[in-house]
Give the backbone structure.
Amino acid sequence: MQIKVNNEFLEVQHPFSVLNLVQHIKGSNNNGIAIAINNTVVPRIQWDKIQLKENDNALIIQATQGG
């Protein structure tokens, strides 16, 4: 199935959870990451429960330090 991640299309297997997406993009280091699916923020505790669907739009935001 095809989803959009940070404005780029990505082909993934179905079923594919938000956690699978994070691991695919960021590996095991998922500290400081926020995820929105179709403009709705997904709490980290639900990453393994939310399954992505065809044409979902995911936004992954990485927190950075600075000042």
